[in-house]
Amino acid sequence: MRTFLRPGWIALAVVVVAFAALCFSVLAPWQLGKNTATDQRNGLIKTAVSTPTAPLSEVAPAGRGFDPSTEWREVSMTGRYLTDREVLVRLRSVSERPAVEVLTPFAIGDGSRVVLVDRGYVRPEQGALPDVPVAPSAETTIVGRIRKSEGTTPGRGAHSEAGALAVYTIDPVEVGRATDTTLDPFYLQLSPGQPGALGEIPLPQLDSGPYLSYGLQWLAFGIMAPLGAGYFIVSEVRQRRRAKAAARAPDVAGVTSSEPGSPDDSASHKDPVSHNDDAPRSRRERVRADLRSAGTGSGTRQRFQIGSGPGTESTSEQVRNKLSERYGG
């Protein structure tokens, strides 16, 4: 436990837990939510494309606000453009090229109801604002698709740019505030070939995109991070256990026959005669053995050496007589 209470292990645990929590609570839901939203949008587009055009008053009556289920529905309305309240949408991209979208309010009937209309786009000229064709001022009937507001980021509202009113997102509330006009909380994307139409903004592609796979990847990362940390912890524990076992094991290579109690040591102190398994059995061999054990070494001859007998000069006469009486000869 002391090992895993070190700052390095504690930092690893904090990072792994934080990363897993981020994957499960933020990153995976973010991508899976985008996948769900894309699927819902695709379903609405498919339904809207297969539904005939209807008057705006039937699909979105005045005063009811925006109904998400009506988005992308194609509706018709009769009235006139308010060209003096036109607004440009900057920093847009259409077909992977820079574009400037043009928003023009459209007054229905007697002007009691005004809807913001996205007429399409024009291409900017070397970063400068382009010349925008003027919409017809006479009463006309137009057809467009209902779109929800994009909202406005704080600090990026309506502003004046090169003498024109500009915004960065399509937000009827912000445009209404800037032009002093009461607008419906949604806008219409003008269909191709309509009066006042500019460059066509195509419908989104009906695919789910990579969001589902991204969400599943974040979930997998959230699972793999604790498993990976667990694997390293188990490996560390096993390695330390092996190191401790190796430190406690006896040094077999250092054990020698001179150590007390070793088999070689006890064997080296055995009596070469009395403990010899091949002890002589014949009378002559027994005599030799007794003579060797009773005799004392003389000169360079050592006691207990095989073949060495008692020295005649140092052996007493009494010993000789006793051996003669016992064995004869």
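Above is the first protein from milestone M3; the second protein from the same milestone is given next.
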Amino acid sequence: MKVLVTGAGGFLGGHVCAYFRRAGVGIVGYSRGEAPEGIDAVRGDILDPEALLGAMRGCDTVVHCAAVTPYAKIMAEPDAAAEIYIRGMRSVLSCMEKTGAKTLLFPSSGKVYGKKTPLPYREDAPLQPDVYMGFLKVECEKRMREYAAAHPECRMIAARIFNIYGPGQKADFLIPKLIAHLGERDMPMGPPETRRDYIYIDDVLRAFALLLERAENGFCAYNIGSGGSVSIDEIRKTLCGVSGGELAFRIDSGQIRSEEPDEEYGDVAKIRALGWRNETSLAEGLKKTLNCPQK
């Protein structure tokens, strides 16, 4: 197996590159910026089909991590985000057809479900997202389904990750943001009782490896999460406990996302049936994240 990782300079893409390199897998990192050390790297934009085609040649597998992920950035530039997601996916699939690559793993999101969907979210539930990123992920999955129908010899894997965290994640996201504010007594925050499904990066990487090993031809979707939810305030308390620091919130109405549900978490029975388990507790994951520098 030789794997092209798009978005290799980002949080998830960088970890994917490092994980598979340690496993002895041939990796080509494709990114607008610097890719991790120790791999073949090609600098290019996901919207540049010629550069992408050149990077993909010789690869049989693509892990397509190139994306806009911070909520604020997506909402500030929705058209640009749509270009990266939808046109980027079209470009990846077009290049796969030209090069003969047979497997695509796409980090989708639990945001594809939406608050009309009963908890826990199951992979066979209707996709009715409430937020724009969820809509963009659904559109990408649609194109994967279409490609799988036209190319039954290929594998199109949608890994619907919930709230991922770990070392190197930018402070646009909750857990590195909390770490950056340790010691404060009035950190502005939305409703602290909001509950989400958090999953540590190492558990996600093991899930990716398993899916690439065991997923069958055609389109498939798998939830990747803890299988439960935790509140923002519970994360705060756990972080204070493992760090020995203190942190207190003040409610900031500007951070309330009324379009999102109060609670989100996924049913992970499908991937557990393949032999996967989330092995990292919240306390352990927070310790590991604390001990590494944040971006």
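Note on the second protein: The domain at 2-165+197-227+265-279 is CATH 3.40.50.720 (Rossmann fold).
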